[in-house]
Each structure stands twice: as C-alpha cells, then as structure tokens.
Amino acid sequence: MLLIGKKAPHFEAKAAIKDRIQDCFSLSDFLGKYIVFFFYPLDFTFVCPTELHAFQDKSAEFEKRGAQLVGCSVDSWFSHHAWLAMPKNKGGIQGVSYPIVSDLSKNIAKNYGVLKEEEGIAYRGLFLIDKQGIVRHQLINDLPLGRSVDEALRMLDALIFNEKQGEVCPANWTQGAKTMKPTEDGLLEYFR
Predict the structure, then answer these.
(1) What is the residue extent of each domain of the chain?
(2) pLDDT tens digits, residue range 79-92?
(3) Angle of CA points 115, 57, 73, to nearest 5°
C-alpha cells in the first residue's frame, strides 16, 4: 500500500518509553515535528535489536533535525518493557530512549501496509512523516534485511533541504552536495 503524499494513518496505542508505559500514545502528539516511524517484526529476535540500537546511536542526529523516532511491533507493551530492561550484551535494547508502540491488535501494521498476515508480524517498514503529518517517504524491507539508519537520515536531510530551499535532491545526494531547480534548465545546469 502506497502512503506517499497521504496523511499518516492515525492510531492510539500503548507505548513503552524507557522505564514506563504510556497508555494513550499517538503520532499526532508530534505534529510540528518530523517523525521517523518504523516497524520491526518482533521483540527478543536477532536483526531487530541491531536496528533499534542503530537508531538510538544516531538519535541525537535526528533530534538535531527536529525529528522524533518511534518504533513499533506487534508485541505487547509488557514485552517491550521487558526488552528495554534487558542489557544489550544479552540481546536486549536497554538504553533505547524513543517510544516503542505496541500493536497487539495488528491494526497499525495493517493500516500502514506492512503486516505479513500469514505470520502475524510486521515487515521492516519505515515512514518519514513531515511536520503536517503527511507521509513523504516509505521503505519496506523483507524480514532478514536490516535497514540503513544513515539512509533514513539522508532522506530526512533531503526533505528538509527541499522544504527550505525549494530545490530538488538528485540521486545519491548528501548534505552539501549539488542540487537542482525542478525545471528543464535546472537539470541541464546540474549536468554541466
């Protein structure tokens, strides 16, 4: 399901945040900020903790850009809470400080188009949501394929640049690289 250019599907759910449970968590609480909302298959698995720690390791970079990280899986808030208490060297995600949403009903994953129905878990979906709550980028990986946090940051940088400058970011663009005006002349100038 393609969500690009559409309002991010609304939900209210329980979320584990560090050592507490928030009963009524919603992405709409972050309107006015960018949101990097990502799904992972299950707590206490293998690729998943590497991703959650990788996002945590770069959390200051996301914050510097005015972005909120939010993770989500189909596990219960109790499971999230227990996994957050488990040390990294034992396979846990202790130290992760951003919210982790519980999608026990699987409705959030379904509404975002990432539910792998036959297994009842979510694919590795990532959604970059702008300050108005519109999905501007989505990427969905199969279960064994961990995602690149640096690519999520690059896409956030490209969105911010486009919003501020009005120019577009070509293939493999990184912060400080050449951009172009979204016109035929702009393209020709870019290739000169």
Answers:
(1) 13-146, 148-192
(2) 999 999 999 999 99
(3) 20
Per-residue pLDDT for 1 more than 90? no
Catalytic (active-site) positions:
48
Q: Which amino acid is present at 175?
A: Q
pTM, two decimal places = 0.96
Amino acid at 176: G
User: What per-residue confidence (pLDDT) applies to 140?
Assistant: 98
> How many Cα atoms occupy the beta-carbon half-sphere of 102 within 13 Å?
20
**H helix or E strand, kind and range, residue 159:** helix 149-165
User: Which residues, at least 6 apart from 98, have a Cβ–Cβ distance to it below 8 Å?
Assistant: 17, 55, 56, 59, 68, 69, 70, 71
The CATH code for residues 13-146 is 3.40.30.10
